[in-house]
Design goal:
- Helix 2 packs parallel to helix 3.
- Helix 3 links the parallel strand 2 and strand 3.
- Helix content is 37%, strand content 18%.
- The radius of gyration is 19 Å and the shape is elongated.
- It folds into two domains: 79 residues, 2-Layer Sandwich (60s Ribosomal Protein L30, Chain: A), CATH 3.30.1330.30; 159 residues, SPOUT methyltransferase, trefoil knot domain (Alpha/beta knot, 3-Layer(aba) Sandwich).
- By secondary structure, it is an alpha/beta fold.
């Protein structure tokens, strides 16, 4: 459970909880194994039998499972899934219908925050998520759990060079819009989000780096009282994504 670097090297991740495991089994992601109490086996038997691959199933009561995981489990369900093959950004741009909407993150170190952002992306019609080289992986156990399994619905590009990826988007006519809380003269409602765009979010403590910020076409802020520095990145993403959808007549 704690060897997440090893999991990454093997191309696997851990799904935790009934909803997340159920959504994994319903998805196109590969499934290696499931670990669960007997009562949940009866609940999920149909989904397990519907899988095209052979899924190893281990059955034990929650108390026994907790001795293996080393932490308290609310429902006692775990599954091991396979991280999908890498998708190129060029391919995603080509197949995404217009107006296009992408999200990029830089320096996001909290798995829970990244999972919440993924959930918002799926809720508000984001076509792909670009995860920069300084961000944590969206396939960490806590990120998958915080996304409530919506990560299985969102194409992800884990880019080794975020600046190059954003430059590619701009070359394809996709505007990059920075969520920058220290912008004093431009607010979110003043930005035109009706065309193809990519929203860029920075780290919890330092925001967007100057190099990425300089690359963006615009930088806008959510208007807030001066006593509030910024919002949690998940909350900020929800506000930004809602505004994009509102401008596009989807809300």
């Amino acid at each position: 459970m704690r060897r997440q670097h090893e999991h990454r090297e093997r191309g696997i991740f851990v799904a935790e909880g009934e909803k997340v495991v159920r959504r994994l089994l319903e998805s196109h992601f590969g499934v290696v194994s499931v670990l669960l109490p007997a009562r949940w086996l009866r609940e999920l038997e149909g989904l397990l039998q519907a899988r095209s691959e052979e899924v190893r199933v281990f059955v034990a009561e929650k108390e026994v499972l907790e001795t293996l995981t080393g932490f308290s489990m609310y429902q006692g369900l775990l599954a091991v899934g396979r991280i999908p093959p890498r998708t190129s950004l060029e391919e995603l741009v080509e197949r995404s219908p217009k107006p296009q909407l992408f999200v990029a993150v830089e320096g996001l170190s909290s798995a829970e925050n990244l999972g919440a952002l993924v959930r918002n992306c799926v809720a508000f019609n984001t076509q792909a998520l670009l995860v920069g080289e300084t961000s944590t992986s969206p396939y960490l156990r806590r990120a998958v759990r915080s996304s409530m399994g919506t990560i299985f619905q969102l194409p992800v590009v884990e880019t080794p060079n975020l600046i190059e990826s954003l430059s590619l988007l701009r070359a394809r006519g996709i505007s990059c819009l920075a969520a920058h809380p220290h912008t004093k003269h431009r607010t979110l409602s003043q930005a035109n989000c009706t065309g193809d765009c990519c929203l860029v979010f920075g780290s919890e403590g330092y925001g967007i780096s100057s190099a990425v910020l300089e690359l963006c076409d615009d930088a806008v802020a959510i208007p807030m009282p001066p006593t509030v520095d910024s919002l949690n990145v998940g909350s900020a993403a929800a506000v930004f994504l809602y505004e994009v959808n509102r401008q596009r007549g989807k809300m």
